[in-house]
From TrEMBL:
Organism phylogeny: Eukaryota, Viridiplantae, Streptophyta, Embryophyta, Tracheophyta
One function term, GO molecular function aspect: metal ion binding
InterPro entries: CC_SR_Kinase, Kinase-like_dom_sf, Prot_kinase_dom, Protein_kinase_ATP_BS, Ser/Thr_kinase_AS
Annotated protein name in UniProt: Wee1-like protein kinase
Keywords, sorted A to Z: ATP-binding, Kinase, Magnesium, Metal-binding, Nucleotide-binding, Serine/threonine-protein kinase, Transferase, Tyrosine-protein kinase
Residues bound to ATP: 271
Entry EC no(s): 2.7.10.2
C-alpha cells in the first residue's frame, strides 16, 4: 500500500503544469516584427561599415536614399504598426540593437518629413529613461567600450534637443494616455532592457542582507513576461553561447547535453527542461533546483553549477560536465573497495549539503555522476530545507524510506542516508532495483538479504543506514567517521 502511495506522491511531485498560456495575436505579431527587426538590423544596417561611416551631418543624400530604398524594399509589405516599430524611439532603447549612428542615419533620412500615416510612439515621453538605458548598455557592453565614451559625450551635447523633444511631445502623449494605447513593441523592448527578476534564495541560510529587491518596481511590470519571451525569435542564448555536441542524458523532466562554450572553449553539461514552463508557479518550482545549487556553492563531490537562464519557456542550467552517472555501474560488478570510495565521497557531499541546512531527497545511482573517478552528487530538483520551511517533494519512491511516504518530515537528513544505503545495496546487487512490492517492502523495513562476498562490517553499516527508525541511522558525519573507511583513507 505504501508503495502505491509513494508512487502517487512521486506522481504528484512529477506533475509540472502543462496548461498553455494562449499566446495572443498581438504577441505573435510582435514576434514577427522582432524577426523583421533583426533582419533589418543585421541584413541591412550591417552593410554600413562602422569605420567608414559618415558623421550625421555629412550623410550624403544619395546614401540616404539608397538606404531608404533598401529599407523600403525589405519592408514594402509592412503594415503601419511595423513601421511604427522600426521608426519609433523604442527601437533605439534596447541594448541589443542600439547603434547611435543608426539614429544619425535616421536623421539623415529625414524621417520627420516622412508623411506616411505611422502613429508616433506614445511612449516618447520616456525619452530620458530610455536614454539612460542606452548609456548603461553601452557602458556595460565590453564590445562597445571603445566608443561608448564618445557616444556619451554626443548624448550630453544633445541633451537640450532631447528635452525640447519631450516638451513638444507632451500634449500628444497626453492624448495617447487618454486613448489608453500601449505599444506592444515598447513593452517588449523595455522588458528586454530590464534586468531579470531578483528573487530571494530560500536555500541561503542567512539571507537578510540580500532580501531587498532593487528592481522590485520595474519587475512587477515585467516579471511574468521575461521568462517566456527572452531568447525567442532567433536570439537563443543557448545557441549563441554554446555549440551542442551530443545528448548525454535524460530524466523525467529534462535532457542533458554535452556542449562547448564558444567564448571559453571549455566543455560543460547543459540541462534543459523538456516541458515548457508557461506558468509562473512551474518556473518558480524549476528554479528551486538552481537556487539550491547556487546556495550550496562549490564542493568536490557536488556537481558544479555555473549559470542558468530561461529561454522559450524552458529552464537551462549550465553544469560541470561529468563522464557518466553511477547507474551505468549498477550493471557491473563493483569491488568492496570501490563501494567504500563511492560511499565515502557521497557521504562527504551529504555532510556538506546537510551542514548548509539542505536535504537532497533524491539520492540514487542516476543522480550520482562520475568525473575522472570522483563521485559527484547531482540533480537537486527535489532539494528542500531541513527546517521544513520549504515544501517537501520527495524523489524516486524506490529509494525513499517509509517515514517520508507517511509524510513524516522530521528527519530529512536521514532520508538521504537511507537513500544512499539503498543506492549502495543496488550497486552490490549489480542490477537495478525493480518496483516489486516485496522487494520494496523488505528494503523499507531494513531487511537486507545476505550479500555474499562482502564484509560483515559493510553489511551491518548498510543495515544501520536503512534502519526503519530514522533516529537510529547514522548522520553523514558519523558515517564518515566509521572505522570501515580507514581502509580507503590514504
Ligand atoms: N553534469 C552532468 N554531467 C554528465 N551527465 C549528466 C549531468 N547532469 C545530468 N547528467 C545525465 O543526465 C541524466 C538526467 O539528468 P537529471 O537527473 O539531472 O535530470 P532530471 O530530469 O532532473 O532527472 P530525474 O528523472 O531524476 O528527476 C542523469 O542521470 C545523467 O546521466
Ligand atoms: Mg535525475
Amino acid at each position: 500500500m505504501f508503495e502505491k502511495k509513494g508512487r502517487t506522491l512521486l506522481a504528484k511531485r512529477k506533475t509540472l503544469g502543462t496548461i498553455k498560456t494562449i499566446r495572443t495575436k498581438k504577441v505573435r505579431k510582435m514576434e514577427g516584427t522582432l524577426e523583421r527587426h533583426s533582419l533589418l538590423q543585421f541584413g541591412q544596417f550591417s552593410k554600413l561599415s562602422f569605420d567608414n561611416r559618415p558623421s550625421s551631418s555629412n550623410v550624403a543624400s544619395s546614401d540616404s536614399s539608397e538606404l531608404r530604398s533598401q529599407l523600403v524594399s525589405v519592408d514594402a509589405d509592412a503594415d503601419c504598426g511595423e513601421k511604427e516599430f522600426i521608426l519609433s524611439q523604442d527601437f533605439f532603447c534596447t541594448p541589443d540593437y542600439i547603434t547611435p549612428d543608426n539614429q544619425n542615419l535616421m536623421n539623415g533620412l529625414d524621417i520627420i518629413k516622412d508623411h506616411s500615416p505611422c502613429p508616433r510612439s506614445p511612449v516618447k515621453l520616456n525619452t530620458v529613461k530610455s536614454k539612460r538605458c542606452r548609456q548603461e548598455s553601452f557602458t556595460l557592453n565590453p564590445l562597445n567600450s571603445s566608443w561608448s565614451s564618445k557616444h556619451r559625450v554626443d548624448e550630453q551635447e544633445n541633451d537640450d534637443i532631447e528635452t525640447d523633444e519631450i516638451m513638444v511631445d507632451k500634449p500628444q502623449a497626453n492624448q495617447t494616455e487618454r486613448n489608453g494605447y500601449v505599444s506592444q513593441t515598447a513593452v517588449a523592448l523595455r522588458c528586454r532592457a530590464m534586468p531579470p527578476p531578483c528573487l530571494k534564495n530560500p536555500y541561503v541560510m542567512n539571507a537578510s542582507e540580500i532580501s531587498t529587491d532593487p528592481f522590485g518596481y520595474q519587475r512587477s511590470k515585467c516579471a511574468s513576461f521575461l521568462p517566456s519571451n527572452m531568447g525567442g525569435n532567433g536570439l537563443s542564448r543557448y545557441l549563441t553561447d554554446f555549440h551542442e555536441i551530443q545528448q548525454i542524458g535524460a530524466g523525467h523532466f529534462s535532457r542533458v547535453f554535452k556542449v562547448l562554450k564558444r567564448i571559453d572553449g571549455c566543455l560543460y553539461a547543459v540541462k534543459c527542461s523538456t516541458r515548457k514552463l508557461y506558468l509562473d508557479s512551474d518556473r518558480r518550482k524549476a528554479m528551486m533546483e538552481v537556487q539550491a545549487l547556487a546556495a550550496l556553492g562549490f564542493h568536490e563531490n557536488v556537481v558544479g553549477y555555473y549559470n542558468s537562464w530561461f529561454e522559450n519557456e524552458q529552464l537551462y542550467i549550465q553544469l560541470e560536465l561529468c563522464d557518466h552517472s553511477l547507474s551505468k555501474k549498477s550493471s557491473l560488478k563493483v569491488s568492496e573497495r570501490e563501494i567504500l570510495v563511492i560511499m565515502h565521497q557521497i557521504a562527504k557531499a551529504l555532510q556538506f549539503v546537510h551542514e548548509k541546512g539542505i536535504a537532497h531527497l533524491d539520492v540514487k545511482p542516476e543522480n550520482i555522476y562520475i568525473k575522472n573517478g570522483v563521485c559527484k552528487l547531482g540533480d537537486f530538483g527535489c532539494a528542500t530545507r531541513l527546517d521544513k520551511s520549504l515544501p517537501v517533494e520527495e524523489g524516486d519512491a524506490r529509494y525513499m524510506p517509509q517515514e517520508i511516504l507517511n509524510e513524516d518530515y522530521e528527519h530529512l537528513d536521514k532520508v538521504d542516508i537511507f537513500s544512499l544505503g539503498v543506492t549502495v545495496y543496488e550497486l552490490i546487487r549489480g542490477s537495478p532495483l525493480t518496483e516489486s512490492r516485496n522487494q520494496s517492502l523488505n528494503i523499507k523495513e531494513g531487511k537486507l538479504p545476505l550479500l555474499p562476498g562482502h564484509s560483515l562490517q559493510l553489511q551491518q553499516l548498510l543495515k544501520s543506514m536503512m534502519d526503519r527508525d530514522p533516529t537510529r541511522r547514522p548522520s553523514a558525519r558519523e558515517l564518515l567517521d566509521h572505522p570501515m573507511f580507514d581502509r580507503i583513507r590514504g
